Amino acid sequence: MSAVVDTPLQTLNFLRHWPLAALLLIAFVGVPAFAPVYVLEAILLPFLALALAGVGLNLLTGYGGQVSLGSAAFMAVGAFAAYNLQLRLGLPLPATILLAALITAAIGLVFGLPSLRLRGFYLAVSTLAAQFFVQWALTKFGWFSNDSPSGVISAPGLSLLGHSLDSTTARYLLSLSLVTLITLGVWAFTHGPLGNDLIAIRDNETAARIIGVPVLKTKLVAFAISSAIIGVAGFLWAFTYLRTIEPAGFDLDRSFDVLFIIIIGGLATLRGAFLGAGLIVVFPLLLSRLSATAFGGIIDSGMLELVQRIILGTLIIAFLIAEPNGLAAILTRLKRRFARSP
């Protein structure tokens, strides 16, 4: 599958363009001041968590060409690691997030080892095994959930330097800050030497070996960094959005959601993760409102979810056929068209 890769010059021009600075200013200042609580809780918090998961998976799959179906497993590891670090060690929030990311990176390294010999469909199956194994372990061993009878636990309160972060606005600003910093870090990585090696492996692994690219090291680094980022996304999903932690919240459907995000948004472009996450989060809400308006709420939630899946599947097929580079490519074409217009 082809992908749109931002060149350093294009990305620098995009980052230096004033609309992005204005967007960040609105996100950090305007949204907390004027957005209703519903918008923060139901749209922006899940959007930020899923967008970060998309950034992590896009690093591995879009830039590295390593297919993974275990994103939700690494989200679960990050969430449960953060919970146990706070519960059992009482670590401050920055240390909790950092160690949870490192633990998830270590798990990602373990499940990334098959990538040294497997590719494509076979690698996807091995990462699918990670999804089932992690969910089984979290369900089987009650220690991870502090022996909760139902396996569902409430996320501990968030605080930083003695200040509570449990309000909706504080949780939004925490999520936005983490997503912004990590996305900038991923941009720097993809436009550095290791990022170039990763793209070379994706394009032609044999040629990459011939020119001296350390293929094994680069693949494992990609799995570790991707898993760490997705682990932080799992922390945001559980601690800032759902406010509960349970293995069922990180099932295979969640892995497919993250995969759909990068397919619809666009592989090998950071913008794609945000565009795809926006569609995945907003579309069910729009469909629910449309159903309530047009049919008076007579369609039950199960049927509505089935319709949502059918439409999303149709959209994915349409993108794969008509525009395999996703929404990011469409946005790029629109920008060029407007730039040429008088």
Automatic annotation (TrEMBL):
Membrane topology: Multi-pass membrane protein
UniProt KW keywords: Cell membrane, Membrane, Transmembrane, Transmembrane helix
Family matches, as CDD domains: TM_PBP1_LivM_like
InterPro entries in the record: ABC_transp_permease (IPR001851), LivM-like (IPR043428)
Subcellular location: Cell membrane
TM stretches of this protein: 20-37, 43-60, 67-85, 91-113, 120-138, 172-190, 220-239, 259-286, 306-331
UniProt protein name: Branched-chain amino acid ABC transporter permease
Species of the source: Cypionkella sinensis
